[in-house]
Write a structure and sequence with these properties.
Metallo-beta-lactamase, Chain A; Rossmann fold; 3 domains; about 25% strand
Length: about 550
Amino acid sequence: MDQVRLFALGGLDEDGKNMYVVEVGESIFVIEAGLKYPESTDQLGIERIIPDFKYLVENQHRIQAIFISHGHDDVMAALPNLLRHVKAPVYSTPLTAMLIEEMLKKEGLRDIRVHRVKRNSSFKIAGIAVRTFGMTQSIADGFGLAIETPQGSIVYTSEYIVDYDIHNDAFSCDITALAEIGKRGVLALMTESVGADREGHSAPHHRITEFVEPAFEDAEGRILITTYHQNLYRIIEIIELANKYNRKVIFYDDDLRAILKAVEKMGYYRMPIGLEIPKAKFTNDLKDVVVIVSGSGDHVFRRMHKVALGEDAMLRLNSQDTVVIASPVVPGTEREATNMENELYKENVRVVTLDRRKVYSMHASIEDLKMMLYLFKPTYYMPIKGEYRQLVSNANIALNMGYHADKILVLDNGQIAKFENGILKSTADQLTLEDVLIDGNENLDVSGMVLRDREILSTDGAIIVGIVVNHKTKEVIGGPDVQSRGVIYLKDADHIVKEIGNIIEKTVEDAVKEKRYENMAVRMEAKDRIVKYVLKETGKRPMILPAIVEINVTE
């Protein structure tokens, strides 16, 4: 019987950066390729964090498929980074496939085949049966999947809620399909943990209509609403409210409009005719309008913050405006959200913020998670997607339902669960993983040196030391000159400055005397000597930038 291995390259003990790996014998199936946004102040300048792909690159000949369950950044935005190093087929549903293709096109990636699958379908990849099933998520076309193995299915639900009042097939979930998979035998169930500490079901608390509608009833002027452009369910609620109150809609974000066009083309949802005002016809004098300001991650907060500061080319606030903040704060966006809200209050507009205790994100709560355990009846349960406290809360749900601790897998990223003959044999093996930090175009800093240099500059500063030598004789004819930024106050450290200059001068002289002078090599040697000296004298490790300028001297 083939060995089954199950592990995560991201998504455990963190919010985002989801990537899970299922190995059936020699075949590898990758589930998700997401990012997360930097959360701490020591990661300034970093735009996103993605999983460590080393294992997949080394074993890419074994990868049979990459599954992307829905169109959110935390599960698909690192896909271009992965596909630059790994050539493998991608599988997803039509809307998500369209979003993926647009993303790959922007990244300049061609010849990547994205297979379109139905939300409820069965097919085989490399002789291994795969079954997909629709899940109710905040974006249309979301799905989970079951990978059949000789030991039972490995089931991944992705994020979801249980909502019996969904009347749109693109958001619906067929509970009977889940029960059928459970009856066939499930070896391991992987289920999200973000909402594992919330009582009850997420539905109907995920709907914002009853909390936003009073703003529509009371607003004297325009209504500006912030939302994530990938939260399609919430955007549809806003559009329906605008239609109910005879307010025209303007989409600030072109990416959101592109998503809605795709949704309309696929027949998932159609905007009421005549409701939208094109951006080209928008003026700040319009009154009975709803402006949807959207974006991904902290971009939505940055955009509204720019509007509040009066720096936006399109929108200008006035005292009659009502601003509804319908984009919940997620890890990595706290600072931008606070800055935005603070500036909005300065502008004397009416600000409506949704209460997170009353309006839930579309993630499974305790009763939703219980339902999945009841339907799938897995032999082993693996909480995923969440910080460690959330993984533990999810594990406790299984414990309370009668599962023994040895059947619940709370793992770390890179920790491998091995199954043989339907029994967990080991979780001892561990892959060594590092966060991959991305700043702008990753191709400009593949090694991460720029980001490491930035960290050094932000903590221990920099020392620049220059010297001028005769190009022909290599005799020192100018300097040395030493400049310090963020390390020492030059006037109080003359002896240190003088010795740094002596070090570079002596390094040059020694190299010339020993007939081994080469500009780059001498600079590196001087740098190493200066680093050791400065560490000894100051206890700091600043960035050392030595410069040896060679000039031709006319006799």
